[in-house]
């Protein structure tokens, strides 16, 4: 018997080894690996903006900063150029000995700061750029000093530059720059009573280790200095009267970015704008518009409230050794005094703002005691505290998943996707599947039959037990070409709550989804 089996196997092997090779294929039914996902309230709304009440109900707690005011509104230092040409007043040539100082030029310079009167500033970044052109036939040394300045070690800004020998026909040219980062400037001038003013000095001498050099009134030294891109980190004095306008500006609003459609009716809401003035000067702020925009539906809802288009006074900040106590104004929005519920119910992903601001609207009432730290200027925050207690109609959430169908050598002819759902939310839900191309764009859809049934609830519509459901989605051959190239799909969940009363969402609500794919593959053999 064993011998007969052995002969049979040898005969089969010889038959196939002698047969002419041809491509062969089989249709095979295969069940794919299971895809599992769990949806909780964290998937519907970002976990970072959720808070939990003692009864385990969920509250959306979100702060949206919508009014960054540019530094230039308060203070901007223009580039300041200092140019000088130095010659010799001698009618006949004279000889300069080694180390002879032939230029000593103190000067008082000022920044053009409009009506601001700044007495002190600290520099975050910036530089002094220089260009020196010398016709002296010997190496010279150029020293530039800005008095009443200090770096972190208490040193005055003083730099020396070596300039090689030049001639009238071929002057020596040296260019470069020095950083001013971290320097402080006393801008009260030599008398200590001025503002926007700094003293400087230019010294030029011949090389002490060089030889004597002959010069005449035909020889010159050109010196050009420029303070460039000075960005202060702190200033004090009188900041001046300034006006600023910004917008309309589109700001990303990420609270409802997971929601792709539908409508919602909220039960209650606590929203306010908080304005904080960290500047040591009185300010005024006016919000001309705040518009909620849903880019999916194209719907816009402008906020209607008595504060819109009204100047709001902001007290000056108080400097506690660098720890600023800001002047604060708070504006509350309720259903009674505004349409804030409609603004939020628009499920926007953008907030468009347009604002104006004024500094020192009454002038120099502080007698030159304003201050400004540039890392903290004016904050305007939009606070939302929204209990997740609502009525939803056709609310749509989306999640991307991979069905693991793609096989280049063994393409899928058709497939049946079975969705096993365990629903712990107090509402029914529908499922839709959208097919994506290789660029990730939706190009087609697949019909899903069946319904995810609501969890079991008590008389207060609070979940007592989750409920299981089974849904089916048949993917025909004409759509498998898309999935064979990209097996990722968009899983869209659509749900409706009871029309009344408002449904409360609790922290432990969930929905488990398990997707099993029964595939018909064409397996090729060469």
Describe the structure.
This protein is mainly beta and 526 residues long. The protein has 3 domains: 24-45 and 391-525, Sandwich (Jelly Rolls); 58-72 and 239-387, no CATH class; 76-238, Jelly Rolls (Sandwich), CATH 2.60.120. Helix content is 8%, strand content 54%. The protein is built from 5 helices and 38 strands. The strands form 9 sheets. Strands 5, 8, 10, 12, 13, 16 and 27 form a 7-stranded antiparallel β-sheet that branches. Strands 18, 29, 31, 32, 36 and 37 form a 6-stranded antiparallel β-sheet that branches. Strands 1, 2, 30, 35 and 38 form a 5-stranded antiparallel β-sheet that branches. The protein is elongated.
DSSP strand content: over 45%
Alpha-carbon Rg, integer: 38 Å
Which regions have little confidence, pLDDT < 50, spanning 5+ residues? 1-21, 24-28
Please indicate the count of domains: 3
Please work out how many helical segments DSSP would assign: 5
Mean pLDDT across all amino acids: 84
| N- and C-termini, Cα separation | 34 Å
Range of helix content: under 10%
Q: Count all strands and give the number.
A: 38
Shape: elongated
Structural class, from secondary structure content? mainly beta
**Can you summarize the main beta sheet?**
7 strands, antiparallel
